[in-house]
Amino acid sequence: METFRADTLPEDLKPVMSYVSYTEPGMGQGPHENKQQTDIFAFLGSGNLKICLWDNRSQSATYGVRTVVFGGKDNPITVIIPPGVVHAYKNISKTERGMVLNYPDKLYAGWNKKRSGFIQGKPEKIDWIVNCSGYTAVDKAEDEPAPAYRINADGILNIAGMARTLDAALIHIPTDYVFSDVEDRPDPGGVYANSKLMGEEYILEALKMR
To answer: Domain end: 68, 87, 108, which one?
Structure first.
């Protein structure tokens, strides 16, 4: 399917880059509000996402209006989000990852500024990253190990890599499941604990590479 066409966009909207992101089942992104950037999001699948929009533009006719739409596998859609519209989305699928394409009209960090410590849409250096993610269904992880490792291990690998790239501090809170009751060394029992330990080991490796 076509995700966007230049002849159907507003005349003054000119996308200058693109990127793809994936959201795990049950996980969300946002809320975010851009001050200057317009986003063109394409929700294609293979999961389905719930998209929430809230107009925070005081001069807008729809100021304060909250809108909820659904996009993804069952309803592939493209959504244009102008500056001042708060947006967030959540993957409501049980097993499938949600893929989202974005075609913003501002370059990553600005023209000729693809450098360490900066991230898209933020001219300020990123000093801290706080990891608030986690697969926490301890018992369910024994029957469904894949999402536990994908979120608690692979996801942390991505976050740790971003912290290393941006030269930012990473705040990560571990779990007591990694340790036994009598030892202060790692002694994980079960899929959940092993996935959490693997994520923490990824963080230590990322720190060594700085």
So the answer is: 108
Whether 102 and 32 share a structural domain: yes
Of residues 131, 121, 71, the one with CA closest to residue 101: 71
Please give the pLDDT value at position 76.
Answer: 93
User: Tell me: the pLDDT tens digits for 65-91?
Assistant: 999 999 999 999 999 999 999 999 999
* 30, 94: one domain: yes
Query: Is the dihedral angle over the CA atoms 194, 199, 202, 203 positive or is it negative?
Result: negative
Domain enclosing residue 89, as ranges: 19-108
| Confidence category of residue 124, pLDDT binned at 50, 70, 90 | low
Cα(57)–Cα(61) distance, rounded to whole angstroms? 9
Q: Are 46 and 91 in contact (CB under 8 A)?
A: no
7: helix, strand or coil: coil
Question: Given CA atoms 158, 162, 167, 169 in this order, what sign does their dihedral have?
Answer: negative
Q: Are 25 and 147 in contact (CB under 8 A)?
A: yes
CATH code where residue 52 lies: 2.60.120.10
Q: Are residues 104 and 157 in the same domain?
A: no
Confidence at residue 40, expressed as pLDDT on a 0 to 100 scale: 94
